[in-house]
Records
---
Amino acid sequence: MQARLATTFLGVLLFLCAQGQTGKVPPQHLDPASYVAGSVWVKLKPQYKGIFESKSATARMPAAVRSAQAQPFVSQAVQQRSQGRLGPRKLNVDISLYYQLAFDKSRSMDDYIEELYATGYFETVEPEYTVSSLMTPNDASIGQQYYLQVIRAYEAWDVTQGDESIVIGIVDSGGDLDHPDLQSQLYIDPAEPLDGLDNNGDGYIDNNRGWDFSGAKASLVGTPGFIGDNDPSVPKGNLFGHGTMVAGCAGAATNNSIGIAGVGFKSKLLFTKHYSDDQPDNASSYSSNTYFGMLYVATHGAKIINCSWGGSNASSIAQDLINHVTLDLGCLVVAAAGNSNVETPLYPAAYDNVLSVAASDENDVRSTFSNFGGTVDITAPGSNIYTTIFDNSYGIDGGTSFSAPIVSGAAALLWAVNPSLTPLQVAEQLRISSDATLYDKNPGYLNKLGKGRLDIANALTFQSPSIRASKQLLVKDDGTPPDRGDDANLYFDFTNYLKASSSGLTVTLSSSSTFITITQDVLNLGSIPENGKVHNTNTPFKLSLSPTAPIDQPIEILLTFKDGAYEDFQLLNFVVPSFIDINENNITTTLSSAGRIGFSNPESQTNGSGFIYNDRSLLYEMGVIMGTSSSVLFNNVRALSGQYDQDFTPATKIMKSTPGTRSYSEVSGAFQNAPDAASASLLISYRSLVWKNVPYQNFVILEYTIKNTAATAFNGFYMGLYADWDVENSGAGDRASWDAGTRLGYIYPALPSTSPTVGIQMLSTKPQYYAIDNDQSIVGNPFGVYDGYTDAEKFLSISSGLTKTQAGDPTTGNDVSHAVASGPYTINAGQAITIAFALHAAGNTADAITSAKYADSVYNYTLKAPVPTVADVEVCYGSSALLHATGATKFNWYKDFTGGEPVHTGSDLSTPGLFNDTVLYVSNANKSYESLRTPAHVFVKSNPTITASRSPILCEGESVTLSVNAADEYTWNTGEKTQSIEVSTAGTYNVVVRDNALNCTSPDAITVTVKPVPSAAFTMSDDLTPGTPVQFTPDHTPDAEWFWEFGDGAESNDESPMHVYDALGTYTVSLIVTASNYCQSTSTQPIDIITNAEHGIGNQLTAHPNPVNTAVVQINYPGRENATLTLFNAQGQHVLDDYTTGKLNDYPLNLSRLANGVYTLTVTTATGASRTMKIVILR
């Protein structure tokens, strides 16, 4: 299955993007059509796991929770039954934490989500997103069920007809359950007779053939007590018949003399219904939670879950649910890629652990409606599909909706033959065995329709590795993130889901982009066992980023895997962003390289995370304003007519350092007030400071150093931050105020509320504050920003002292913003000033003011306190170290640069024996606040630990580099005295390393194993004429695999194949032999296919020695008389006089005057027959 990838690395400056990757991004500015009114999904924090299980506990909760109708995603009875079936093992997902909450539909979705987050009970809150069926009506009249032949279902049915124990869950609109081609295929729960009782204890009554989650009336869905009914049959057709059509493709009755044949043959079907009976028959959106249906079928016997529906919104909760049904419950999720003819991810198809299916037609051409892209795993027929329809009939339709169940039916056949496969192995087997000739018909969609078109007959017998890359890391040599113009190393985890690979497995990195140059593109991954994993830690890919690489745009790269007959690919991309997230404590926000905060693109609120506290998005816009007047003003906030000013450009790259120089993590860079340094008059360097530990967890400090790069002074200079916050009711219920004691400008809800307080604090002197009512029409309002924010208003905002410190209606509040600034200053030419702010968020105003006190303390006292001095120490491997600090009278020692409790107090610290370089930290604790912590480095010398460049288990002919850490002397038992040695023979390798200064030595050892390689030598039959079978015979290797390439495009996996060449010529035949120990050998031989006349003069022409390393070569052609010998060089030039011989037995040919190279010898007999051979001169 194609993995959805994402690259993570320090700073997250440059990252690979997986199509469909999801993250916790709170919904904002939602389109009401994209979600179900009055319904949210929640994931509880683990410590509140039982709050909905007790009425008394629920009664004590805030009103937002107390008034909601909570429904678990899976009932406790079903959870217990599933856990019993799974046995005593840890689950990947604790499904008991997930609930659906129904609330008043008239309420704002944004507000309700914010209220839930404010309670502190929930880890994630999301709307219940709508999804739609993926059917594209088509009334064409063509042959019935062409797709069975295309996917080779008939050949597959000769191998297996499936198994009734394999159940396919049809999570859809419901089904025509009495359809003659479906009725016999229904899964009937034997533990649930129709007697009005819940016999199987799952919380549903008489649900022996599925469940209707939508019921008769759409208006009842989500109301208290509504759970649906036990009849998933549909009352009418059109889009109501979608589930019936889907089911026919997957599992219609086969070999029953009527109707059609489902791909799954004997497989059974289990329906859930998500259309209400009273919905319009052309409504494409489901009225109930399809993910509930997914969980239902997963806990009621289904092995395969078909999802022929989707939506454009990604959900972290939905991803968790899919992980649960796949990794915990053992189900395969198959989903339609979408019908919009775009390269845009659709969900659930684009989630991890889902087999995503695109559509093709009867000619293997991509269906015109089908989505495509890197998230697609496989393609299957989806145009003009003849299948079951409502009211016991049949019809033709099209869509990826029908491609998915065709693959689901194929998965059922495969699982019946190989019941021990995991869901991901089933997906990978279907994917890797698909027919890649699909791309012959679709050259414009290369690598974007999955591995190929479904070939179920091949899937049943095909044996191959299937390698997928994950956990990408792109960094420079020093481990920091790269920027444009940098060289970088690219690392992956490589997992093999299927058959073990051989020692010859390679992966190649390539790209069609002109913005990267790949300098190390091929890695040998070696033998990876089934479900094994390797990491290219010691052998990264290497690439260079162009200085002109685009910002915030994906750069596509391709991984290509090769191992004999195994060929595969994985399509990825990475992005050079113009921004970096700060997310180390309770606040998540973003700094952009051009000075904006929250969003690099405020117009669309994209390219950034905004400002998030307790998973609530609270910011509309934040940026920088500075200058000396309205005519000398530089800013990047809103302007007039809905536009935004941007007077700054990046001057140095933005980067993240963890740990930072003064805090846990820091983002730094610089921007200037002109497009280039020559025309700029200001250079603004910035740095964020953030701490994880209490009491610093609720603020982020932003420090700016503004340098005058012009020739004249800036007089009366002010600099500030402008922010438009949305705390309560999308900002409409907010107030703005000022706390003089902490120099904190803050925004808070006007009415009593669980919404937080946010603010900007001036940590420097000369504070300026201006509170703004955004609506200019408010009586008495000096100005607002709805009608634009002029330069005059901006300068007024940062230079008016503390003349307007309140905004927002005192009773109800309104939409407000504010500016917090410092000034005036004089900045002479070449000089600089530093101004610092703190961004705060807290549960209420009092806590925000307390947080501001801590920010002031840490910035103006802790960071300025004298730091201790401590010398670095060197010790022998395994010895203890004595560290001594000076510069204070009291010292605290820590394991980390920030946070944690002291591990020791006092000036001296003695460590236990150390085996690796170690860093401890010491602070000046003379006062009630501590200083920054000074790192104390202990360098361990004579560290003998041996590292291997690859696995020390080799195949003959391979080598491994053994290395140790730097020391003064190295003594290997091989006699070598270097830091690294390369070895290729089996044995135990010992090393002793020595440090001369400390006079210490330490030993280590590693064992290298070498496995034998098979012989790849082969012979071929003598008759080498066109149209005549040539027999190829290799040296026999027991339990080996063979992969032949005959030089004319043909291949074979037989041990001793026969091959017919159709045309004259010289071909290169190659053989790759893979032994049962996964070692591999390769050999090649040229073969000349000759005419019958050539064949008539035999096949015994020889030359020895050949290659020629002497002056004379002996030509032997037994029984040939009066033959003429002619010699040509590689350019076809006649280089030797013709010789006419007597008998051609060991005829000496003097080649002493010819240079090294490849030559062609032609022998022509008296009868006119000729024969050629190559002679290589190599002296």
Note: The two ends are 53 Å apart (CA to CA).
---
Amino acid sequence: MRISGVKIDNFGVWHDLEIQGLPEGMTVFYGPNEAGKSTLMQFMRSVLYGYHRDTNQRYLPPVDRSGPAGGTLSVASHDGHFLLSRHTDAAAPFRNPGALQVHSRSGRTGNSSRLQSVLGAVDEPIFNNVFAVGLTELQQLGTLNATEAAERLYSLASGTDRVSLVDVMRSLRTTRMRLLTEDDGNGLVMRLLQKRTSLDNEVERMAEHADRWAEVQGEIVRLDEEIAKLEGNRDELRRQARLAEVAIQVQPKWELWRQYNNELIALGDVEELPADALERLADLNQKIEQKKAQLEDLKTQRNQLREEAAKLPLEEELAKNAARIRALVDQRNWIASLEGQVRRLEGQLEEIDLEIRTEQERLGITDGFRPGAPLRITRKMISKLRGPVKRMKEDRQRVTEAKRQATELREEAESVQKRIKQLLNGDSSLRRIDDKWSLVAEVEKTGALAAALRRRAQVDENLATMEDRLDDVNLRRAELLEDQLLPPRTLTTLGMFFTAGVMLAICGLFGGYFGFRDNVRWLMVLVGAAGVGATILMKHLMEIGSVDELDETDRQFGMLTKQHQELASEREDLEGALPPGNGSLADRLRDTETKLGNLEELLPLDSRRRETLKRAEDAEKLAIQAAATLTESQRLWQSTLRSLGLSSKLTPPQFKELIGKTGNVRLLEKQRQEIQNDLERAQRDLQSVTSQLTEIATQSLLKSIDESPLKIVDQLADGMKRHNKNTERRESLRGQSRQLRREYEKISKGIHQLHAKRLSIIASSGAEDEHDLKRMLDRRNQALELTGLRDDTLREIQDITGLRVNQDEIEQQLGAQLKEDNASRLQQAQQEMQGRDVRLKELIDRRGRLLQESQTLANSRQLAEAQLSASMAEQKLRDGLDQWKSISAITSMLESVYKRYERDRQPDTLKEASEYLAELTSNRYVRIWTPLSEDVLYVDDHDGKTLSVDVLSRGTREQVFLGLRLALASDYSRRGLQLPLILDDVLVNFDLPRTKAAAKLLRDYSLRGHQIIFFTCHEHIMNVFHDLDVLVREIPRHDGVVDEPISLATPKPIPLVAPQNPDVVTEPDPAPRPIKEVARPKLPKKRKTKKVVVDDFELPATAPIAATPTEVPVPHEVPVSVEYDEYEFEIVGEDGVLGEDDDEYEYVYEYVDESEVPNLQLIRDEQEYTEFTS
């Protein structure tokens, strides 16, 4: 069965979607996230198997509920083409799974049995887990176990007559275990062991009846007591010997411990002192020293400030010549041009000298020949030059062949570049494509231009805004200037108040003559004075307010003017940086952004072009071998010339010219003389200017005067700057000195406080001074050290003796032993132990003989019968063990057969999946297999290591599962059930190499007759399929018609012609099942949008790159792009003509100029780098 078209009326987010012309092979649908790819795959599932709540709850009811939910699939099978339609109620889709309607191309209707004949035994779980697989189904191998597909994975061939090898091995293991144990108790072998043990006990009991046996037993008891006594005495002797050994070992340590103890007693009582008294005292002393050091540093810094201030001279003579110095700075450009002229003439003089030397070298003039003298060619020279010329002639032929091959490869690269130029749509700015051209650089350049244009537009807007603000500020400034003079009305009012105040004050002062009382007079004076003062103050405040506001306005005006100038300067810089263009700024910006978008879409094409150029460059690198051979021939020619006294740089044409010409040396010398005269005139002018500048610098009292006039001008300007800077520096140093003096006083107070703390610590310790405190601390430390040594020695003694006791216990246990001769006591104890050992050995031997006699006497008739029964039980036990061993051997043989069977008789499905996995992982993993006794999968790598599927990485597991699905689909196809594979983004967790391998595998799989529909939202995956010439289509956003595929070979869509009035046979709907309605949130109404028509150029990497694959030449035939010149000349004899014995030689020589060889230096650098890294 093959799906040839899809039409979705209403399902999920899709509404009126139609896809036609799906081919028999592979089709890739590309679309962004939330484009509806998974919805499209679920629609195909639902049309084939119905709408169910558990699988379609996300998609039904659809977003648009205006019509019935569902759609139609166009399918083709061996029975012909027909349409499958399934619709249901959009409001309540799960009440009815939807009735299937089948229509043929001729308009006839059918029933669901036709679909069942195509699907066969593939039910919905098998189809969803094998043929229509998403990323979730791919990652879960357990979904296969619930279907019949698991049987194809885990089935192995059974044994003869349907007898399973596993059942036989399980039966043998049960029989073997039954010999040892049974369900109700012990088995046969265990029962025989118990019976044998019982008979042995009976034999022992019957051996106790003889009288001699009782006497022997008594003797044995007496011997045991004597043996025990001897062993006890031996233990006591061992203890004494051990004590003597310990005494010898402990004696040096014991003496050392007594020495430490006596020294500690002699030291006497030690005063208790604070543990950190000395550290605190040392810390205070350190802080005092640090403070003193800081005082010294402050003194030094103040002295340095004074010295620095004294070293800052005020250059008054330089300041007097400030006007003349500024004038000299204005003439600096003219002086610089004069110096530039001198340097240019000197450079030309050096160049003409170099040309003269080059002409002499070209003519081969060396120490052996004088310029212009004729050069004679002898037979000896001809004989020596014959071999190198012949070798160069042969090498020339090989290099010519290499050049031809290089030209062909370059032409192939240029053809690829022409194809790329055709895709640029005639853009004149992008027509240049060479080795240095990069679309990435063009994208960056165009992006920078777009940013500059945006910034240019923004600057224009800011300038317009700034000019409006300048106009407002300028208008306000004019108003404030007018307000500097108070208005007449205001002045009149203030004058009236001022006059009234003065009149009141005068009346108060002279009111006594008019009969006013004193209190009234003084009140009039105060009111008048207050009025006068208030009037003056108000006038002053009004004037001050106007001045301040005017100053603020001037500041704003200056700031805005500066910003306006900066913006104008920035606009000029941007205008200068921008390339010239026609149209307005907005049009240029829009065109640039459009161009940038087009360039970004062409990035994949540029990658293809770079790849083609890279192949051409690789071919040129291989041509270095042919060039190296010619270089060796050149070196032989050059060495031969040197041996003949000629220049090694002499070429055959130069050699021919050398016979009758001397060159153009005289003409070059004449040109040199003219340049020399011009240089002398320019130097005289410069010297005159320099003397004038030196005179001015001498008057300004400069310390050192440079020879360069420009540097003298710079020295004078720097001197003025230095004079101003020294003046400012003096004021700064004076302020720093005052700050250092305040810090000096603060640190001095801190030193006095530290001294007080130091005296307090000494007094609290009971010492007279610091020296006395140190002496007391030394005695305390000495006592602590002796105590530690004594305790360590005591612990060592305890480790040696093994006794964890204190000092008193050591003296009681070992004190007496240390006073005797421990060595003699040790020797005596060892001798006594040897005597005890000899006696003990004799007693043990006698006891053994008595035991043997007792055993002999115990034998009787009953003992023989018991022994016979024990022998019979022993024989039965051997038979049972032999049977157990036989079963074990058979089981081992069957296990060997089992392992070989398990290795060689894997299902065909797993063998095919192993081939797919090896192709997906580049032979990293080569086999998938399953054990005979359990339904699990294992993977073998190329080293033969077996791994469980669970330990593989996520991406590798998905590659295993993908191979299994492909193998299962092939198995169903071989059984006559060929269904399309629908894959939804199953390659997202693959790396790029394995993605390419998987894409190639799917492409090849589809070429074997399997239809594959692949959905992806990843552009790099779409590009991989596109590079493999797989049909690629774009999915529109939720609605639209996809008619144009994104591929070169676009199949013509097959029109679906439905009958005008087909006779529809509707199957009866199944009885609805009661379901619980689930409240769904209200969705916004879908807006009507236009149908999307997909263009081939809307996606990157869609245009054809190359019609046919190119062939890479063989490495030894790779050409190099080198141009050569061919020269021929005749060699004459000594007499100037060819004699009878003179041979005519035709010397053909090719001189290779490295500057004309493209990438030759790059190739040599890469070879040197490779040798260095190796």
Note: Confidence is low (pLDDT under 50) at residues 155-163, 366-376, 1039-1174.
